[in-house]
Amino acid sequence: MKNFFTKLSYILVIIFLTITNSNFSYADDYLEDNTTINVSAEISETLAQTSDTLESSSINSRSCIVYDRNSQMILYGKNETKQVKMASTTKIMTSLIIIENCDLSETIEVSKKAAGTGGSRLGLKSGDKITVKDLLYGLMLCSGNDAAVALAEYAGGDIQGFADLMNKKANELGLTNTHFESPHGLDSDGHYTTAYELAILTDYALKNETFAKIVGTKNYTITINGYPKNLSNTNELLGYLNGVYGVKTGFTNGANRCLVTACKRNNMDIICVVLGADTKNFRTQDSIKLIEYAFKNFTYINANEIAISSFDNWKNENLQYININKSSSNSFDFEVQTCQNPILSVNKNDINNIKTSIYIEQNLEAPILSNTVIGNLTLSLNDKTLITLDIINTNNINKKDILYYLNYFFSNYSKILEQVLEY
Question: How is domain 30-298 classified at the CATH fold level?
Fold first, then answer.
């Protein structure tokens, strides 16, 4: 009996040492990421502390960005191009691959490998029957790693096959500093992105109505083996902070706390990404600070309106002084081309600091075909170029030829003759 308890004690010690010395790195770990915070109180307190300025030292997250969806401009950034781990924000790409390539109504059977995946879980068991659509809700609302693997095996055959699909899509989107090795985001050296590229990916994904609907859902009921299961979204700002309509939380030991938030108020639509916050409270506070800073300080201007007005004023004053060598006509005109997306997001305090510079080539010479670029107009702010537009001529400018000179001679024959006689 004594030997039994001795062996049992030995086994318990081994188990304890194994657990305490293991460095498990689970995406959205249940105990860590679901730490309860009073969201309403946290939002109220943080809002009370926000100001019109934002110091980098006040942001705990290692990297972050506020990206404006309408102007495609960065409103604020901190280490936004640095490669970092991104935990379960990975699942933004996972869900996008599934939505774009799979039949969401199809029912699949959960494998033993998927059911055994650790970290945050939907709670799947080997042999469970569930639709692809319900797996997506389990993936994005409660960040189920088991759902991620089940979807990866369904769409890619295995995790590596699915990672190949993810990286192919990343390449298509121009995400050169992003690489995927899994559908769930568990830490690995070859699995990384940047705050900027995660914002670009999220912006693209939100254009898909199915994706936007899923990530904007606070609560949802799925069915596993015919039985209902209620899900709640892990996104602590969804349903609490004004204008928030998604997107995804994340946590691993290597990535720390991460949060991607989409927020829209009136006509301004932004994506806020915070990566590497030390605690859930910090990621919440950082996100609120960044979001409020953007809405308090930025507004939209129309680049086309400013460009056309500035160019028309310039042309009225300068067109008469432009000479085109060897041109057969004095009839010519120029215009500034407009851009397809003229919306620019600028700090409200900088609106009057926007400068316009116009350049026209000095040595223009006929012939010049219509729609030929002959110069450009640049809008800049604080020595930073906002946008550059081409200036083109609107009609053909012909070169003087023999017919021109003959016509000129006969039209001016009498004058030429008088000049010759006087000479």
Answer: Beta-lactamase (3.40.710)
